[in-house]
Amino acid sequence: MSGGGQGSGAGASVGLEVGGGVAVLTLRHPPVNAITVAMALQMGEHLRDLEHDEQVGAVIITGAGSRAFSAGSDIREFAAMLAPHQAVDRKLRPQNMVFSYLARYAKPTIAALNGDTLGGGLEIAVCCDLIVADRSARIGSPEITLGVFPSSGGTFRVARRIGVGRAKQMQLLGLPISAETAQEWGLVNQVAETGHSLADAKVLAGILLRRPPRALALCKSVIDGSDDLSEPQLIEHSLLASECAFTSPECAEGVRAFLAKEEPAYRVGRPAPATS
Q1: Which of 123, 184, 231, 263 is catalytic?
Q2: Is 4 domain-assigned?
Q3: One domain for residues 181 and 109
Q4: Are strands 58-63 and 68-70 parallel, antiparallel or unpaired?
Q5: Active site residue 143
Q6: Does residue 243 have an active-site annotation?
Q7: Is 83 within the bounds of a domain?
Q8: Are residues 165 and 250 part of one domain?
Q9: 70 lies in which domain range?
Q10: Along the 276 residues of the chain, how does pLDDT read in single tens digits?
Q11: Which of 119, 120, 190, 258 is 20 to 30 Å from 34 at the Cα level?
Q12: Angstrom distance (rounded) from CA 261 to CA 183
């Protein structure tokens, strides 16, 4: 669950723009892009459509305006969810399904934090492979100040990125950290000048588009299993993924281009399903 934002629900949506092989999903709910259940579900619908779009090789998620990526859940939704099972059934379970789908997404994803990223906003960001943050962004998990805690994966996904001690510092105290501190801790990959996180994310997306999509998906699947599988299981998973990679047209093109001292011509396309 998230505790950072408020809004009426009117005008809440997730925008979609596609160009040059990159899809940009924009959280739109002024003034701080508070996340509603409907927005989470709409994001999931966009992601499912994009997964099957062979012209899209990378997905960026950002927020509208310059104030916030997202300051968390729309608190006004909470009033109708305080009875037993209501919050879990009506909000957290469907929201967790969408966020888990994003975390396991086959195509590379980048969060462009164009402003404050709190509560559910951070929970979305840590589902992405890479995070670029504006220098002015504050990043945190203030849910504890509302008597709740991050309930859409923020507990364990933040801990996986920065360690248990720092995750507890963020989530038990409820105090935000700066973008620079987030980068130092490994929560953020890159700090952009204020107002440039989306542009910098697009630069990274451009690099990803020059990488082989099948190999990207396979690499992601092995990395994502590192927290859940034993070392022998990971070795077998890696070997199975490597068999797919080494026997792929992408590998043949990569070797050909290397020997010919040329840039490989990888096509943007639908990546292979992750191995298990």
Answers
A1: 123
A2: no
A3: yes
A4: unpaired
A5: yes
A6: no
A7: yes
A8: no
A9: 13-209
A10: 444 444 445 679 999 999 999 999 999 999 999 999 999 999 999 999 999 999 999 999 999 999 999 999 887 877 777 788 888 888 889 999 999 999 999 999 999 999 999 999 999 999 999 999 999 999 999 999 999 999 999 999 999 999 999 999 999 999 999 999 999 999 999 999 999 999 999 999 999 999 999 999 999 999 998 888 889 998 998 999 999 999 999 999 999 999 999 999 886 544 444 444
A11: 190
A12: 36
- Quick one: three-class SS letters along the chain? CCCCECCCCCCCEEEEEEECCEEEEEEECCCCCCECHHHHHHHHHHHHHHHCCCCCCEEEEEECCCCEEECCEEHHHHHHHCCCCHHHHHHHHHHHHHHHHHHCCCCCEEEEECCEEECHHHHHHCCCCEEEEECCCEEECHHHHHCCCCCCCHHHHHHHHHCHHHHHHHHHHCCCEEHHHHHHHCCCCEEECCCCHHHHHHHHHHHHHCCCHHHHHHHHHHHHCCCCCCHHHHHHHHHHHHHHHHCCHHHHHHHHHHHHCCCCCCCCCCCCCCCC
Q: Which one of the listed residues 77, 143, 193, 236 is annotated catalytic? A: 143
Q: Where does the chain show beta strands of DSSP type E?
A: 13-19, 22-28, 58-63, 68-70, 109-113, 116-118, 130-134, 138-140, 177-178, 190-192
Find tokens 């195509």 and name the residue: 107
How many CB atoms sit inside 10 A of residue 52's CB? Answer: 8
Q: Are residues 241 and 204 in the same domain?
A: no
